[in-house]
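worker-03 picked up job from queue 'complexes'. Input manifest follows; two sequence lines, order preserved.
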Amino acid sequence: MSRAVSWHRPIGFALLATALLATAFLALAGRPAAAKSIVADIDHHLIAITTDFSGDEVLIFGAVDQPGDVVMALWGPLTQVQVHRKERVAGIWINRQMVTFGDVPSFYGLASSRPLADILTPAALDQYQLGVGRLQIKTLSADSDTLQEVGDYQQALLQQREKASLYADKVGRVNFIGDTLFRANLRLPSTVPTGKFLVEVYLVRNGEIVDAQTIPLVISKVGFGADVYRFANRHGFAYGVVALILSLALGWLAHLIFRRR
Amino acid sequence: MLGALLDWLLSFQIYLPIAEISISVPLLLALGGGVGFLSGLFGVGGGFLLTPLLIFIGIPPAVAVGTQSNQVVASSVSGVLVHWGRGNVDFMMGVALLIGGVFGSSIGIVIFSLLKHFGQIDVVIAISYVVTLGALGLLMLVESIQALRRVRRKAPPRKLHQHTWAHGLPFKFRFKKSRLYISALLPIAIGAMVGLMSAIMGVGGAFMLVPAMIYLLGMPTSVVIGTSLFQIIFVSGYVTILQSWQNHAVDILLSLLLTVGSVVGAQIGGRVGVRLPGEQLRFLLASLIVLMALLLLIELVRHPAELYAITTLGGLH
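worker-03 finished. Artifact:
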């Protein structure tokens, strides 16, 4: 199982939604009007990547005080990325010029209750980096003769990440239940990176973001696969010895099994 | 119907902890089995086929190479035990090759790490394959065609070995099982070259070592396979540890699945192999090697589908 919390999902959701609805109303009733207009949570804060992991979905749910639109952005940890461009040298294509980018999310996905263009202005979309094409990626360094073409490198980065399902303008849909309750299932591909993720949940009214909430999400390897990975990276030498002994034993075993025939 | 069954089979996925991708278990078993069959048939490790195939199905090249060295150990052990029982291992020759092999593979691992750092490892692995497979495949092809003709004419085989400048080198040593009295520098140098290439290419190197032992050293064919397998266990074992230590590039799970497939395949291949005549087998193997080199060459020369290569730098875990 790839889930850390393995309760039955529909029941779990119903329970949580009820509890949340109650809290939401209490919160809205008990506080002045300036208090939070949106509350949201996630069904589990930890996604476990085990050896049979083949992608997963996270459920984000919540309530708003008055009707509006909800937009969600799922961010993976920011990293540095090197992009090499291949060039033909003596007939062979090899990596030549390189650009290094910073603040590159390792994963990025969006979900909204209506098409983004219908909800927010391009300026607002840019400001909140809503859309793969609107990500603000920093150029850290570039080979001198690539300065003019940094945009091409960035474009290639975005395209390849989209192709690998790591960036997507749509990883789910925000569905409203009545006017104030909403839920969304966000899809994570089997190649999803590990680390601390953030889900940004925005409430939009009349083309403006009026409230927001951030929910943390940790995606991490657990179980056998994670132990192997950690052992391999922390104790490389011992790992090599184990790997070697294992294959020596397997070879010997194979010899024993097949010798008689 | 058949397609649905195939889909169902392929749906058994496993997450490989070091390669960091999910991949179908039956696919890996079949890949190991297929390559094992060929290696049993031809008496070579099969690494030169498996590593490019692993890269083709999406395993990162560095992990494919590192893991392959580990898998070679298992297949060589089961192979060498048979030859050891028949007394077909020249221990002294193996040790001489090994001294060179350890030296060469140590340098190979350093080069591997450097190239990985500079983002050039993929292209160097590919070029190494094209050059070594191309040259050896063509040589073997020519040789096996000549051998086939000889068989047809019923002509006697050529002399075991000619005396050349190499026989004038110092540190002469008597290799009893090989019935040779040659300089120990010769097998050490050959071992070093093969060790260097096998560290970079993730192969045992039998396909380079065997012809070198027959044609350069003039060893009798009966002890060549056993002796090369003997030294390959140690060099590959050494490379496995270095690859784990320096490059974190050995995936135990992947190696396990490939080994299970390949030992079964090798047994079947070995049984089919004894029924086929040697000259035709060598011709088939040579054709296979040349074909592989050609495919890899085309891949290097033709306009790549993806002009940009992306490397994520640390900080992820």
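worker-03 released lock.
Residues 228-259 of chain A form one domain.
Residues 131 and 196 of chain A are 20 Å apart (CA to CA).
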